[in-house]
Amino acid sequence: TVALTAYNDGRSIGGAVKDFQAHPLVKRVIVISNNSTDRTMELAEQSGAIVFNETRQGYGACVHRALREALKFEDTELTMLCEGDLTFRAADIDKFLAYIPHADVVNGSRIVEQLQERDTQLSLYMHYGNLFAGKVLEMKHLGMVSLTDVGTTYKLCRNATLRELMPKLDPRI
Question: How confident is the model at residue 111 (pLDDT cuts 50, 70, 90)?
Answer without folding.
Answer: low
